């Protein structure tokens, strides 16, 4: 676009000056007199009311359950480069989002450059992720060895965290073809992992980094999302799962997936998980 043409180069607030994410649910997002308006029924993250949304001041709007959006609202958001992400309650699912196109491509370019250097920078990044997860920098430079060490420590973590919540633990067992056949703790871990991966997907979308280019995970189309989600496996995923398992034991009539979602939502809000993930991604590519 030509500089100065129609004044559009100054019509948008740069993403560096915006204020992150705005969560809306149980309402209708529409446009009135050129302004974005959200009429909320209440009962969720917001009190009932009629809100004018400062869409030019946020990078992404997270639209939760019970909400509708008009075509005009989508058009207005696209014009001002504000992403709209459809999510489950409190970010426990990420259903869809358009690509966020920030004013700068710094993070995406660093991500691609580091990932392309398979023997140097990519391995160093994998070691950095493992250091964050394990609490120490390991001397090994073979990714297979690092994965083996992490796997062994995770087995112990499962056992210790299960004990903390008073849950009987018989090991990690999961049949992808028959997920319902797993025992309750394993089902809870599956549901909790899905919730945390959704939060990581929202963070990756918000930072415009590249989901397919993971440093530890490789084959999945959202490998980098899995890398970020795994940073929180012992601190968030497993506590959510075992807390929900304990609630299920005490309230056997409740569905385990519903209990996990509720526990995940409470923890995401309390610990501001998604902003934490965004900060981690930025820290990962610093320099």
Automatic annotation (TrEMBL):
<dbReference type="GO" id="GO:0003677">
    <property type="term" value="F:DNA binding"/>
</dbReference>
<dbReference type="InterPro" id="IPR050646">
    <property type="entry name" value="Cas1"/>
</dbReference>
<keyword id="KW-0479">Metal-binding</keyword>
<keyword id="KW-0255">Endonuclease</keyword>
<feature type="binding site">
    <location>
        <position position="150"/>
    </location>
    <ligand>
        <name>Mn(2+)</name>
    </ligand>
</feature>
<dbReference type="GO" id="GO:0016787">
    <property type="term" value="F:hydrolase activity"/>
</dbReference>
<keyword id="KW-0464">Manganese</keyword>
<keyword id="KW-0238">DNA-binding</keyword>
<dbReference type="InterPro" id="IPR042206">
    <property type="entry name" value="CRISPR-assoc_Cas1_C"/>
</dbReference>
<dbReference type="GO" id="GO:0046872">
    <property type="term" value="F:metal ion binding"/>
</dbReference>
<comment type="similarity">
    <text>Belongs to the CRISPR-associated endonuclease Cas1 family.</text>
</comment>
<dbReference type="InterPro" id="IPR002729">
    <property type="entry name" value="CRISPR-assoc_Cas1"/>
</dbReference>
<dbReference type="Pfam" id="PF01867">
    <property type="entry name" value="Cas_Cas1"/>
</dbReference>
<feature type="binding site">
    <location>
        <position position="217"/>
    </location>
    <ligand>
        <name>Mn(2+)</name>
    </ligand>
</feature>
<dbReference type="InterPro" id="IPR019851">
    <property type="entry name" value="CRISPR-assoc_Cas1_ECOLI"/>
</dbReference>
<keyword id="KW-0378">Hydrolase</keyword>
<feature type="binding site">
    <location>
        <position position="230"/>
    </location>
    <ligand>
        <name>Mn(2+)</name>
    </ligand>
</feature>
<dbReference type="InterPro" id="IPR042211">
    <property type="entry name" value="CRISPR-assoc_Cas1_N"/>
</dbReference>
<keyword id="KW-0540">Nuclease</keyword>
<comment type="function">
    <text>CRISPR (clustered regularly interspaced short palindromic repeat), is an adaptive immune system that provides protection against mobile genetic elements (viruses, transposable elements and conjugative plasmids). CRISPR clusters contain spacers, sequences complementary to antecedent mobile elements, and target invading nucleic acids. CRISPR clusters are transcribed and processed into CRISPR RNA (crRNA). Acts as a dsDNA endonuclease. Involved in the integration of spacer DNA into the CRISPR cassette.</text>
</comment>
<dbReference type="GO" id="GO:0051607">
    <property type="term" value="P:defense response to virus"/>
</dbReference>
<protein>
    <recommendedName>
        <fullName>CRISPR-associated endonuclease Cas1</fullName>
        <ecNumber>3.1.-.-</ecNumber>
    </recommendedName>
</protein>
<dbReference type="GO" id="GO:0004520">
    <property type="term" value="F:DNA endonuclease activity"/>
</dbReference>
<keyword id="KW-0051">Antiviral defense</keyword>
<comment type="subunit">
    <text>Homodimer, forms a heterotetramer with a Cas2 homodimer.</text>
</comment>
<keyword id="KW-0460">Magnesium</keyword>
<dbReference type="GO" id="GO:0043571">
    <property type="term" value="P:maintenance of CRISPR repeat elements"/>
</dbReference>
